[in-house]
Specification:
The chain is α+β, with helices and mostly antiparallel strands. The protein has two domains: 43-140; 143-310, NADH Oxidase (3-Layer(aba) Sandwich). The protein is 50% helix and 11% strand. The longest helix is centred in the first third of the chain and has 38 residues, at 2-39. The mean pLDDT is 95. Bound molecules: flavin mononucleotide.
């Protein structure tokens, strides 16, 4: 009898705890939804930061095109037009001094210079650039493999500055190298050391192609990738409702560490978003046999790099753009 009462009590405590987490999670997701609707750039393109982000995405498409393996001239005409329109509109509303917007102009000039010998006239682009004659062409670095990995053993500031995604793959990454990189990535911190991250290595070309077709961000280089690392985060490690972002926060920290580790071991890699619809996410779980308790956080294409290749410049914001002091800044 006493034992039965104890069991009942334990079941009641567990039920109450689950009910609390369910209610917290429902409140938290409602809050997230409200915050998203009120602030997501996609819904508020009139705001300066959202307009700037759209321009950065626009120039990024062209930078990728400029640095892609098997680049073909004449690419991205629609993207050029779109970017010019965005820059025109931004400058009319917010002025001409924004560094990221000026980089967009620089990328457009690099695009024009690449097409200098081409028969197709580009009068609109020429007029656009003539009106912004003080902005030089962007330089997308062309590097040898040795140069790209030259800061491997350098102090952290140089090492961190040398890491870039690489969309050029020419060889197979040995299994031991993947294992060493994951071992190094495991030094990443995690909430209460719960170590949410898991890594699924896709080395079957047909699964890779299916994954990339679903993901949509690897046109022009995905088919060269030797392996794809799918980083997931185990939701089993989440302990209460307010932790609804924890799998992505902890997974994201792991991804960054893994990227540094891959760079350290001389592996070319490109981080890929996993911003997909629920249907695509469910389908990928199925064909990759990833259990449903693991949320896919990020996908990383990798391979050994060729002897030389181009890298997108991807300039960063200034410290003053991102650093805010709350208390005087002593
Ligand atoms: C969350 C995330 C998602 C990304 N998705 C893609 C992608 O789908 N396709 C791609 O070519 N690059 C992708 N990238 C790579 C970024 O374009 C790249 O990291 C950025 O331009 C900065 O360049 P860097 O890493 O060379 O310094 C992604 C990067 C991150 C962090």
């Amino acid at each position: 009898m006493l034992e039965l009462l104890r069991k009942l009590k334990r079941a009641l405590v567990a039920w109450r705890e689950c009910a609390k987490v369910r209610s917290e999670a429902a409140r938290a997701f409602r809050y997230d939804r409200g915050q998203f609707m009120a602030n997501a750039g996609a819904l508020h393109l009139d705001r300066m930061a959202a307009a700037r982000a759209e321009i950065v995405m626009g120039y990024h498409v062209l930078e990728k095109g400029l640095t892609m393996p098997r680049r073909r001239l004449g690419f991205g005409k629609g993207a050029v037009l779109h970017l010019m329109n965005l820059v025109d509109s931004f400058e009319r509303r917010f002025g001409t001094e924004d560094r990221q917007v000026r980089h967009a102009v620089a990328v457009l000039r690099a695009y024009r210079e690449l097409h200098r010998g081409q028969p197709d006239p580009m009068p609109r682009l020429d007029a656009f650039l003539a009106a912004r004659g003080d902005v030089p062409a962007a330089v997308e670095p062309h590097v040898t493999r040795g140069e790209f990995f030259s800061a491997k053993d350098a102090p952290f500031p140089q090492f961190a500055a040398s890491r870039h995604v690489c969309r050029h793959f020419a060889g197979s990454v040995p299994r031991e190298t993947v294992e060493s990189a994951v071992e190094l990535a495991l030094t990443a911190p995690s909430a209460c050391n719960r170590q949410h991250a898991r890594v699924h290595v896709v080395d079957d070309p047909s699964l890779r192609d299916r994954l990339f077709a679903a993901q949509g961000g690897t046109r022009g280089f995905g088919a060269d990738a030797d392996k794809v690392l799918v980083v997931t985060s185990d939701l089993s490690a989440v302990r209460w409702g307010w932790e609804r972002h924890d799998c992505y926060v902890n997974g994201g920290i792991f991804v960054m560490n893994l990227c540094y580790a891959l760079h350290y071991f001389g592996v070319a890699h490109c981080i890929l978003h996993w911003s997909v619809s629920p249907e695509v996410d469910r389908e990928a779980h199925e064909f990759l046999c990833i259990p449903s308790n693991e949320a896919i956080v990020q996908v990383i294409a990798c391979g050994m790099p060729p002897d030389e290749f181009d890298v997108a410049a991807s300039p960063r914001l200034a410290v003053s753009d991102v650093l805010a002091w709350h208390g005087g800044g002593k």
